[in-house]
């Protein structure tokens, strides 16, 4: 049996402790963002994170995936929102009204952003972020919403049709101006995708999202090779 002094000696500290807390998901939001940025820039810290990920992976071995009952979500919706919720068959992300509301909000944010140098504007980095993506001469207009609480990115094409012989690839353009792929847009319906922590840490007010037309399946080089079909700046709501 391990004695208490030995356990204390084996306790992680410094960067090793931060890496362990990052993997467990117990860091505060701003600390998690900072840790995500360090993973990209500090090899030693990234090694700590990888080691803790492997260490904690074994904890899930005793758990088997369970398919929830088909009626579970309906029961939860009914308890939270009452019987009227059952009438709302389309999901929120498929609702045209929702995306029109987001579009209106993005226009307001763009107007406010133009005067940020002169008007104080409180930012809530933990709040949802939106971007209206379009380009001069392009038939495409897309709305994007990023939720930093879940690291989920959702996009909906408001104008234009998916090309039959190309894929539309989404790129994040942050500090150094180098586009980094976030994935491909779905060919039908809104696109929902989880953003990896390292990329989510870079998703903040003022960065740019762009969509390019790439060969089917995405860019073969890992870099943007096709024309920009739509682009826009991310703003915090």
From TrEMBL:
InterPro entries: Anti-sigma-K/W_factor (IPR051474), RskA_C (IPR018764). GO terms for molecular function: sigma factor antagonist activity. GO terms for cellular component: plasma membrane. Pfam families: RskA_C. GO terms for biological process: regulation of translation. Residues 103-228 form the Anti-sigma K factor RskA C-terminal domain. It comes from the Bacteria. This is Anti-sigma K factor RskA C-terminal domain-containing protein. The lineage of its organism: Bacteria, Pseudomonadati, Pseudomonadota, Alphaproteobacteria, Hyphomicrobiales.
